[in-house]
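Re: 5'-O-[(L-methionyl)-sulphamoyl]adenosine structure - here you go.
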Amino acid sequence: MKDNFYITTPIYYPSAKPHMGHAYSSIVADFFARLKRIQGHKVFFLTGTDEHGQKIQRAAEKSNKDPLKFCDEISKTFRNLSSLLNLSNDDFIRTTEKRHASAVINLWNILEKKGEIYLSKYSGWYSVSDEAFYNEDEIEDLEGKKISKSSRSPVEWVEEESYFFKLSKWQEPLLKFYSENPKFILPESRKNEVISFVKSGLKDLSVSRKSFSWGIKVPSNKDHVIYVWLDALTNYLSALNYPKEKEKLYKDFWPANIHIIGKDILRFHAVYWPAFLLAAGIKPPQRVYGHGWILSGDEKMSKSKGNILDPIEIIDIYGLDALRYYLLKEVSFGNDGNISKEKLESCINSDLANNYGNLCQRVILFCEKNLGLKVPEYNFTKEDLKILNDFKENIENIEKQINDQNINYYVEYVVNQLFKANKYFNDQAPWTKKDDSLRLNTIVFVSLELIRKISILLYPIIPNTSLKVLNIFSIKEKDIKFDTISNNEYLKDKKEIIKLGILFEKIKK
Ligand code: MSP
């Protein structure tokens, strides 16, 4: 039995409608969830919305709405986006749900009981937009206003009674944890940033606010609302019914295998989160992967900058699989990436229409015209085996690369196989073999096997299209098994294939 696999996206602030950055985090997580499922792992894939805190309260006030009603509406748009992105999530959590509140309260009570939390007074800078506290050296002046150096969002001075978590005490245990778990933070470059931040000294963290009310109340002191990040991070536990630690769901999936997040929220996930968990005696997750930003030009896409490329509009024009393919292939995972309509169009034409679409069309049309869509007999030559066996020879390496989240290696491998398959069909030129029917048949059989293998590899990237193609072999979603890419004769028992329509229309420029 293979290990279980628990993967999460960040939970999104429903303060405004979803944008490309959100779509990116979700698509990446879905890619891994689907891949792990077809590899035979039992997967739990979680996404959701982060609905408490001052940022949401203010956004609700601005639209003259009760905060819960406001969240109900926008959370729905995130839920709809999950379907639109064809996410295979097993749950969608909202932090305004009861099951979540009881998990947060339980965690808080444990921390308080263990003496990890104390009451004092906070005075310092706070960014409502980031829901983060900043030290004096982390802010600067911009046109007379104070902003955070890292996020560029405005900060305001806060002075109020607050509960503090003894973060300073966890500096050394955290450093030890990082060194014992060298792949806890990926990519490597971000790990180094986190370690030097921790080494530079951790101050105790304010974990409650008193000046607004939208959140989960501190159980022992209802004047305080629990800090929204302590609240939000706990979603990863509450979706597993924490504190029911003896029950199957929790036992099956905690600790999480990986939290997929953007680099801007790494500190919360790689410093505060493991510190809270270690302090509460709960195992930290195994990995936190901080991906880069999707840029519009050279800037992060954000509402305040007004440079948002709307994922819904893009899907409407180009289709979902084109967007998924673009983001997974063209963004170097871990680094910032760029998206524009022009780039997306080139990618659709060259990779999806020309490379994949063309291969499928040509082979199937040829099979229809010459073999009446029958799966033919075959007798492999050395050359046939060479191209077919490439998958078997690389399967271990592909799996290893994927376990390090090397998405680009994976996509490049697939694209290469597509080129090779097209070249094989061209070079073998079955249309010249009309007087050697076994050879003609074999070339078609090999090409069909290549289409099948490649379509299986494409399933986590472009699930809808892959399923359309696999359907010609009557392979349904539940039948997709990653290791069948090693099999060169999977199709031998199939009698006929089903006709295939056009997969991707070329975009005229
Ligand atoms: N609510 C918190 C996360 C709590 S997780 C316990 C939050 N929400 S967010 O809606 O602001 O952002 C969610 C995710 O979207 C983050 O991982 C963030 O990095 C990502 N993105 C937001 N804008 C982005 C881009 N322009 N590009 C890529 N991802 C970015 O933070």
